[in-house]
Automatic annotation (TrEMBL):
<dbReference type="InterPro" id="IPR000811">
    <property type="entry name" value="Glyco_trans_35"/>
</dbReference>
<dbReference type="Pfam" id="PF00343">
    <property type="entry name" value="Phosphorylase"/>
</dbReference>
<comment type="function">
    <text>Phosphorylase is an important allosteric enzyme in carbohydrate metabolism. Enzymes from different sources differ in their regulatory mechanisms and in their natural substrates. However, all known phosphorylases share catalytic and structural properties.</text>
</comment>
<keyword id="KW-0021">Allosteric enzyme</keyword>
<protein>
    <recommendedName>
        <fullName>glycogen phosphorylase</fullName>
        <ecNumber>2.4.1.1</ecNumber>
    </recommendedName>
</protein>
<keyword id="KW-0119">Carbohydrate metabolism</keyword>
<keyword id="KW-0328">Glycosyltransferase</keyword>
<comment type="similarity">
    <text>Belongs to the glycogen phosphorylase family.</text>
</comment>
<dbReference type="InterPro" id="IPR024517">
    <property type="entry name" value="Glycogen_phosphorylase_DUF3417"/>
</dbReference>
<keyword id="KW-0808">Transferase</keyword>
<dbReference type="InterPro" id="IPR035090">
    <property type="entry name" value="Pyridoxal_P_attach_site"/>
</dbReference>
<dbReference type="Pfam" id="PF11897">
    <property type="entry name" value="DUF3417"/>
</dbReference>
<dbReference type="InterPro" id="IPR011834">
    <property type="entry name" value="Agluc_phsphrylas"/>
</dbReference>
<feature type="domain" description="DUF3417">
    <location>
        <begin position="13"/>
        <end position="120"/>
    </location>
</feature>
<dbReference type="InterPro" id="IPR052182">
    <property type="entry name" value="Glycogen/Maltodextrin_Phosph"/>
</dbReference>
<keyword id="KW-0663">Pyridoxal phosphate</keyword>
Length: 872
C-alpha cells in the first residue's frame, strides 16, 4: 500500500551524544576524515547503507546502539575531541584573518548549483562542483562568504542504462528534512520566506533552507511550499529543467530572491552585510537588478544605483560558446518586470537594456544573461588563462573600438578542494612525511614549500600506494558493474565474467565528465581495432573506466553514451573497458585516485577549465589531454602528455577527429604504455614514478581551490570592496552624471594631428622619440580624458601586437580652434616592424579601467562611435 503522507521521524539522541547532531549538520564532515571515521564507528553497517551520510545514519541506527555509545567512554572521548576540533575550526583565526588591509566584511556568492557532497545532490557537473569547492576553500581560509542557490526537489537526474545501452533518467524526490539542511527561522520560530511578484497579481514564495558548509552558510531557496499554486511550487523542481519561462523564473528566484534571502539571513543572525556580490555564471544575474531597486527605494536614481551596484559586483563566466548562455525572448522578460510584476519602480526598458544584444553580431530581440552579468559587474573573469582570452573575443562586441585583448575580462584559473578529492591513503602518506597539520595546510592553503617534501618519499612507497588505489578502484568498478548489469536485466548466471573485469596491475585510464558533443566521449573509438589492440596487448595492456551523463534533452549525447556502452559490452574487451552509469561525486572520489592516466580530449578551445584532471593529479594520476583549459596553461612534460590538436581553419571536423585520434593512439602505444611497464634496476617504473612525484610536488600547489580563492580575494574581492566603499551616494551620482555628460560630448572628441621627432622610417633600438598630439575635446576638459600613445610590433596588416600604452601630458590650454596639445616620449624598445597610434579615452578615478565605458577616439577619419558598455 502507498502512504498518503510522508513524515520524517528524527532520532532522540542521549545527552552525551548530542554533539553528533551538530557534527552531522555541518558539511565539514564531507572533507574531514576524523569526523567521518567517528560516524563510521557509530554503526559500520548503517554507515555503509546510508552512503556515508551522517544524517541518514542517525535516522537509522538502533536506539540500543545509541544507548550503548552514550556509556562508551572511549567513544565519548573521541566525540569530544572531534566536536572541539569543529568548534576551533569555526571560531579560530585562519588565513583571511591574518591578512592586512580592509578586506570585504562579507562576500555573497551566487550559483545555480552547488556540489558539496553526494548527500546533498544539487549539482549536475563542473559548474556545481566548482561552486562547492569554492565554498569549502573559503571556509578553510576563513573568508566570510555566504553562498546562495536553489534547492531542487529532484536534484539532477539519476542515470541507468537500458539493455541496449540507452540512457535512462530517474528523478528521485528529495525530502529536505532528510538532507543535511535546517530551515532558516525568524526569531518567533516561523520559517523564513522570500517572495517574488508575478504577472497578474500572483506571487512566487520560497522557503529558505540553510546548509552549513564549514564556516560558510549556504542559503537554498525552495518554491515547493503550500502557499504557492502548483505551477509555482514546481519552479525549483529540478536542475536545468523546463522551458524558457520556467528557467526565467528559476533565475529570477535565484538572483532577486537570493538577495532578499541574504538580507533576511543577515537580519536574523547579525551576519555582516556583503560588500561584494559574486555572480557565478549568468544564471544569477538578476541579483544586480534587486540591488539597484534597493538603492532606488532608498532615494537613489537609477543611474546612480547602477554605478553603486557595479562597483561591488564580480561576474565569472564559465562558457566558451554563445550557445552555453541562457537567452530569453525580450517579450518574456518584459512581461515579468514592471508595474504589474517584479521591481515595479524600475522602468522595463531600463531592465531590458541591460541584457539586450544591441551590438554588432548580436540578436537584438534576445535578452542575454551573461551580457547582463557583464553590464552589472565592474569586474569580470574567465576560469583559465585561455578561457579568459576566448571570453574577451566572445564578448568584444560590448566594447566596440577596442582590440579583444583589452576587453576588461581577466582570468582566475579554477582549482579543486584537495581535502575533498585527495584519497585518505594519499593524505596519510603525506602526513607521514611532514606531519598531519602541515599536510592539512598544504591541501587547504597551498604554498610550494609544503609540497617540496614529496621529493623525499621513497619510490617503493609511492608505487605501493598507486597499486593499492588501483586495486580499490577495481573492486569498486566490479561492484558498480554488477549492479548496472542487473538493472539492465542480466541474470546472475550471465555475470561471472565481472569477477575478472579489470586488473589491479594494468595501466588504468579514466574518462568521466558530462557528455556534450564537444567533449568527444567516443574519440577513443575512432579506430576500434587499434583501440582493441591497445586493450588486449599481451605485454603492455591498458584498461579504461568511462562514466558520464548526457543531458536528458540531448539525444545526440545519449547516442554517444550508447555507442561507448555497446563497444564496452563486447565480450572480447569488456574485461578491459567499462562504462559506469550514474556518475556523481561518490563515484568520482573513487575514480580519480585509482587511475594512472586521466584522459581529456575536448575540441579546443571549448573546455573553459576542466577541473577533473586537477583532482586526478592531486592523487598522483598523470594527465593525457588536449591543450585546453587549465592544461594549456600548466602543461609540462613532467606532468603528462599533450594530445596535438588539428584545429586549423581548413580542417573539417571529421578529418580533425581522425588526426587527433591517431595522435592519441600514438601516444599510448609509443610513449605512455612503454614508460608505465618499463622497470629500472630497482624493479620499479622509475621514470613513471618521477613523473608522479613531479606532478604532486610542482603541479599540486597550483591546482588548489585555496590558491584560487586567495586570488579571488586579492585580485577581485578586495578591489571590489574598496570600489563599493568609495561609491557613496554622492560619488555614485557624480559618476553617473559624469558618464552621461561624457557620452553626450564624445562625438566632439577627436585626434586632429600627430607628429614625432622621427626624420626617417627607421631608427635604432633604444631610441626615444618625442610625440606631439593635438586633440579636440569639445565640451570636455583634460581631466575628463586620458590621451595615450599605443605602440608595439605590427603585423603584416599594420595591427599593433603586444601593445604598450603610454599616457601623454597636456602642455597648454586650447588654441583658437579649441584643440589641446599633448606631448610625451615614445620609446622604441622592440626591434623589427614597429608602429604606434594615439587614442583618447574617458578617465575618472572611480573607473576600474579606461576601457570600461566602451568609448574611444582614434586618429582615423572615421571616429569609433561607441555608446558604451552600459548603453549597448
Amino acid at each position: 500500500m502507498k502512504a498518503i503522507r510522508r513524515l520524517t521521524v528524527r532520532p532522540v539522541l542521549p545527552d552525551p551524544l548530542r554533539p553528533l547532531s551538530d557534527l552531522a549538520r555541518n558539511l565539514r564532515w564531507s572533507w574531514h576524515p576524523e569526523t567521518r571515521d567517528l560516524f563510521h564507528s557509530v554503526d559500520p553497517e548503517c554507515w555503509t547503507a546510508s552512503g556515508g551520510d551522517p544524517v541518514r545514519l542517525l535516522g537509522t541506527v538502533r536506539p540500543a546502539r545509541l544507548a550503548e555509545l552514550a556509556e562508551d567512554r572511549r567513544f565519548l572521548r573521541r566525540l569530544t575531541a572531534v566536536a572541539d576540533d569543529l568548534d576551533h575550526y569555526m571560531t579560530g583565526d585562519r588565513w583571511y584573518q591574518a591578512q592586512s588591509g580592509r578586506l570585504p566584511a562579507a562576500v555573497a556568492y551566487f550559483s545555480p548549483e552547488f556540489g558539496i557532497t553526494a548527500a546533498l545532490p544539487q549539482y549536475s557537473g563542473g559548474l556545481g562542483i566548482l561552486a562547492g569547492d569554492h565554498l569549502k576553500a573559503a571556509s578553510d581560509l576563513g573568508v566570510p562568504l555566504v553562498g546562495v542557490g536553489l534547492l531542487y526537489r529532484h536534484g539532477y537526474f539519476r542515470q541507468s542504462l537500458s539493455r541496449d545501452g540507452w540512457q535512462q533518467e530517474h528523478y528521485p524526490v528529495l525530502d529536505p528534512h532528510e538532507l543535511p539542511l535546517a530551515p532558516l527561522k525568524e526569531r518567533d520560530g516561523t520559517p523564513a520566506h522570500v517572495a517574488l511578484a508575478l504577472p497578474g497579481g500572483r506571487e512566487l514564495r520560497a522557503r529558505i533552507w540553510l546548509a552549513q558548509v564549514g564556516r560558510v552558510p549556504l542559503l537554498l531557496l525552495d518554491s515547493d511550499v503550500e502557499e504557492n499554486d502548483p505551477g509555482e511550487r514546481g519552479v525549483t523542481d529540478r536542475l536545468y529543467g523546463g522551458g524558457s519561462e520556467h528557467r526565467l523564473l528559476q533565475e529570477m528566484l535565484l538572483g532577486i530572491g537570493g538577495v532578499r534571502a541574504v538580507r533576511t539571513y543577515c537580519r536574523i543572525t547579525g551576519h555582516p552585510a556583503p560588500e561584494v556580490f559574486h555572480t557565478n555564471e549568468g544564471h544569477a544575474g538578476f541579483l544586480g537588478l534587486e540591488r539597484i531597486a534597493e538603492l532606488c527605494d532608498a532615494g537613489s536614481d537609477f543611474g546612480s544605483a547602477l554605478e553603486a551596484v557595479r562597483a561591488g559586483t564580480v561576474f565569472t563566466t564559465h562558457t566558451p560558446v554563445p550557445a552555453g548562455i541562457d537567452r530569453f525572448d525580450r517579450e518574456l522578460v518584459a512581461r515579468h518586470f514592471g508595474p504589474d510584476a517584479e521591481l515595479p519602480r524600475i522602468e522595463v526598458e531600463r531592465v531590458l537594456r541591460l541584457g539586450m544584444e544591441t551590438y554588432p553580431g548580436g540578436e537584438p530581440n534576445l535578452f542575454n544573461m551573461a551580457v547582463m552579468g557583464l553590464r552589472l559587474a565592474q569586474r569580470a573573469n574567465g576560469v583559465s588563462v585561455l578561457h579568459g582570452g576566448v571570453s574577451r573575443g566572445m564578448f568584444a562586441g560590448l566594447w566596440p573600438g577596442f582590440d579583444a585583448d583589452e576587453v576588461p575580462i581577466t582570468s582566475v584559473t579554477n582549482g579543486v578542494h584537495a581535502p575533498t578529492w585527495v584519497a585518505p591513503e594519499v593524505f596519510r602518506l603525506g602526513a607521514r612525511q611532514i606531519g598531519v597539520q602541515r599536510a592539512e595546510d598544504a591541501l587547504a592553503v597551498g604554498g610550494s614549500d609544503r609540497w617540496d617534501s614529496v621529493a623525499d618519499i621513497p619510490d617503493r612507497d609511492i608505487w605501493e600506494l598507486r597499486r593499492t588505489l588501483r586495486a580499490q578502484l577495481v573492486e569498486e568498478v566490479r561492484e558498480r558493474l554488477r549492479a548496472s548489469w542487473r538493472q539492465r536485466g542480466a541474470g546472475t548466471a550471465e555475470l561471472g565474467w565481472i569477477d575478472d573485469a579489470l586488473d589491479p596491475d594494468v595501466l588504468t585510464i579514466g574518462f568521466a565528465r558530462r557528455v556534450p558533443s564537444y567533449k568527444r566521449l567516443t574519440l577513443m573509438l575512432r579506430d576500434r581495432e587499434r583501440l582493441t589492440e591497445l586493450l588486449l596487448h599481451p605485454e603492455r595492456p591498458i584498461q579504461i573506466v568511462v562514466a558520464g551523463k548526457a543531458h536528458p534533452a540531448d539525444d545526440g549525447g545519449k547516442r554517444l553514451v550508447q555507442e561507448l556502452v555497446r563497444f564496452a559490452d563486447d565480450a572480447r574487451v569488456r574485461h578491459r573497458i567499462v562504462f559506469l552509469p550514474d556518475y556523481g561525486m561518490a563515484m568520482a572520489q573513487k575514480l580519480y585516485p585509482g587511475c594512472d592516466i586521466w584522459l581529456n580530449n575536448p575540441l579546443r578551445p571549448l573546455e573553459a577549465c576542466g577541473t577533473s584532471g586537477m583532482k586526478a593529479a592531486l592523487n598522483g594520476c598523470l594527465n593525457l589531454s588536449v591543450l585546453d583549459g587549465w592544461w594549456d596553461e600548466w602543461y609540462q612534460p613532467d606532468f603528462g602528455w599533450a594530445i596535438p590538436t588539428a584545429d586549423g581553419a581548413g580542417t573539417d571536423p571529421d578529418r580533425r577527429d581522425a588526426i587527433e585520434a591517431d595522435a592519441l593512439y600514438d601516444l599510448l602505444e609509443q610513449r605512455i604504455t612503454p614508460r608505465f611497464y618499463e622497470r629500472g634496476a630497482s624493479g620499479l617504473p622509475d621514470r613513471w614514478l618521477e613523473m608522479v612525484r613531479r606532478t604532486l610536488s610542482l603541479l599540486g600547489p597550483k591546482v588548489l581551490a585555496g590558491r584560487m580563492v586567495r586570488e579571488y580575494v586579492e585580485r577581485l574581492y578586495t578591489p571590489a570592496a574598496e570600489a563599493h566603499r568609495a561609491m557613496d551616494p554622492d560619488s555614485a551620482r557624480g559618476l553617473a552624471e559624469w558618464k552621461a555628460r561624457v557620452r553626450a560630448a564624445w562625438p566632439g572628441v577627436s585626434v586632429d594631428h600627430v607628429e614625432t621627432s622621427a626624420a626617417t622610417a627607421s631608427a635604432e633600438l633604444g631610441t626615444t622619440l618625442a610625440l606631439r598630439v593635438r586633440v579636440k575635446l569639445g565640451d570636455l576638459a583634460p581631466e575628463d580624458v586620458e590621451v595615450q600613445a599605443v605602440s608595439g610590433r605590427v603585423d603584416s596588416e599594420d595591427r599593433i601586437t603586444d601593445a604598450a600604452r603610454t599616457p601623454l601630458k597636456p602642455v597648454g590650454g586650447p588654441d583658437l580652434e579649441g584643440r589641446w596639445a599633448y606631448e610625451g616620449p615614445l620609446a622604441l624598445d622592440r626591434t623589427g616592424p614597429f608602429g604606434y597610434t594615439v587614442r583618447v579615452l574617458p578617465a575618472h578615478r572611480l573607473l576600474a579601467s579606461g576601457v570600461e565605458t566602451g568609448l574611444v577616439a582614434v586618429p582615423s577619419g572615421d571616429l569609433v562611435e561607441a555608446a558604451g558598455l552600459l548603453m549597448r
